[in-house]
TrEMBL record:
InterPro entries: AAA+_ATPase, ABC_AA/LPS_Transport, ABC_transporter-like_ATP-bd, ABC_transporter-like_CS, BCA_ABC_TP_C, P-loop_NTPase. PANTHER family: CONSERVED COMPONENT OF ABC TRANSPORTER FOR NATURAL AMINO ACIDS, CONSERVED COMPONENT OF ABC TRANSPORTER FOR NATURAL AMINO ACIDS-RELATED. Keywords: ATP-binding, Nucleotide-binding, Transport. This is Branched-chain amino acid transport system ATP-binding protein. It comes from Limibacillus halophilus.
Length: 268
């Protein structure tokens, strides 16, 4: 699937494991999604870009069970998952990273990872586990796995550090590490580059590439930083005004006059 130089080949990837069709979502008078279509093919690192207000976050929220769409459908791994809450998606193999909440900030990195699978039981039960010492009583398998993931995510030295004390980049690593505790094939990342210094971004990119190439995990990444998109993603999907504008390798997409116009329109 990858060329000798490591670059993803054009149109790489297998069957569509995530597909969105005709998705609509309005907030009052604002049509955030107006017939969005999208497919993510197995084995790809697919990028999702578009000017501010294009609907990227709304799309992510509708795909990952945060808010239900008004109409349209979301399918993953052959199932209609429209409107499913996030804790039902993980067992199916779909997970998205979430910004660490204030509560999780008061837990250590190790505790955050050990909690990740338990959090899938649903938010209703989560408070039971959000007590000091609660995760320490959890079983060994979970502990062993958390240590393995900490090592992989290069967070081993920070295992007993409180999450709220981590730098922006380290928090992103921890968010991804939490997702890895769930063994999902498809990982949705919302702006992995935001607030991350270049050195840690390089680490994060290496981890994403390893997860993709060596472990066969598929990614859908929303990102503002075009350098990150250029390095990681193929194909790249461009959305504007709540729907898909075009899709293709970044080098082609960036030169597409309709894409340039969409971005300039956003600036004006
Ligand atoms: N919760 C909300 N309430 C009202 N309007 C919203 C809400 N979320 C998003 N919008 C509006 O929907 C549109 C798309 O927003 P968003 O999905 O955040 O775009 P992007 O992530 O691409 O910048 C924008 O006009 C935004 O103001
Ligand atoms: Mg957004």
């Amino acid at each position: 699937m990858f060329g000798a130089d490591g670059a993803a080949l054009q149109n790489a990837g297998g069957d569509a494991i995530l597909s969105v069709s005709g998705l609509q979502k309005a907030f009052g008078g604002v049509q955030a999604l107006s017939g969005m279509d999208l497919e993510v093919r197995r084995g790809t690192v697919t990028g999702l870009i578009g000017p501010n207000g294009a609907g990227k976050s709304t799309l992510f929220n509708c795909m990952s069970g945060v808010i239900p769409p008004d109409s349209g459908e979301v399918h993953a791994f052959g199932r209609n998952i429209t409107g499913w809450p996030s804790h039902r998606l993980a067992p199916l193999g779909v997970v998205r990273t979430f910004q660490l909440s204030r509560e999780l900030g008061r837990l250590t990195c190790l505790e955050n990872l050990m909690l990740a699978p338990l959090a899938q039981l649903g938010e209703r039960l989560l408070p039971i586990f959000l007590q000091p010492g609660a995760v320490a009583r959890e079983e060994r398998a979970l502990y062993a796995k958390a240590c393995e993931v900490l090592e992989f995510a290069r967070l081993a030295d920070l295992r007993d550090e409180y999450a709220e004390n981590l730098s922006g980049g380290q928090k992103k690593l921890l968010e991804l590490a939490r997702a890895l505790m769930l063994d999902c094939e498809l990982i949705l990342l919302d702006e992995p580059g935001a607030g991350v210094n270049p050195a840690l971004m390089k680490t994060l990119e290496e981890i994403i590439i390893t997860l993709n190439r060596d472990q066969g995990r598929t990614f859908l990444i929303v990102e503002h930083d075009m350098d990150i998109i250029a390095r990681l993603c193929d194909p790249v999907i461009v959305m504007t005004e709540g729907r898909k504008l075009t899709e293709g390798p970044f080098d082609l997409v960036r030169r597409d006059p309709t894409v340039i116009e969409a971005y300039l329109g956003g600036v004006a």
